[in-house]
Amino acid sequence: xxxVEQHPSTLSVQEGDSAxxxxxxxxxxxxxxxxxxxxxxxxxxxxxxxxxxxxxxxxQRIAVTLxxxxxxxxxxxxxxxxxxxxxxxxxxxxxxxxTFGQGTILTVHP
Amino acid sequence: xxxxTQTPRNRITKTGKRIMLxxxxxxxxxxxxxxxxxxxxxxxxxxxxxxxxxINKGEISDGYSVSRQAQAKFSLSLESAIPNQTxxxxxxxxxxxxxxxxxxxxxxxxxLLVL
Lengths: 110, 115
Known about the structure:
The structure holds 2 protein chains of 2 kinds.
Chain A: E1 4-7, E2 10-14, E3 19-25, E4 32-38, E5 45-51, E6 56-59, E7 62-67, E8 72-77, E9 86-94, E10 97-100, E11 104-109
Parallel strand pairs in A: 2-11
Antiparallel strand pairs in A: 1-3, 3-8, 4-5, 4-9, 6-7, 7-8, 9-10, 9-11
Chain B: E1 4-7, E2 10-13, E3 19-25, E4 31-38, E5 42-51, E6 54-57, E7 65-70, E8 73-78, E9 87-94, E10 105-106, E11 110-114
């Protein structure tokens, strides 16, 4: 089955800095890669996703890149704000099933 | 997302007890999923159902069973709860017929403590 590795497990940045979270996956059949944000005590919420036929996607301060050959994908957050503090999960979809990474705790210090 | 609801939201039970967690959705989605979340392990898939007559095991199905009573309802049962099933449980849905068929929408979660 699919295996998704996510790094780093914790990330601390100053407000205004950029944050990058990286994931690798194992199943070459995976074709959809979402990123979820989970605030404390809340449900995961989709923040951005990318499909296997696209190399990069951007939505305001958030961008995701995908390298299918290397089976890598990354989340980039620019101009971080304290409200970006949360746990971020990457995931890979193969045959309709999501496999999640272990999560990254992002802390943005004012 | 208020369209996906879970009951109960919190539950404390004892080892050996049978417990059922319920998920309902008004989104009209055909696919439903149950996940378990433990600290440091992300979310792991327990069972999933692509329609009412389709039930599939996920990554960690041992000790769990499910029932898809209708398109809108998907229940997770622990036949004999054990302490290492203490976790946060999420239900999710997705819609095969939509342009974003792979996007999953999560319920609010059920926090389960097994003593």
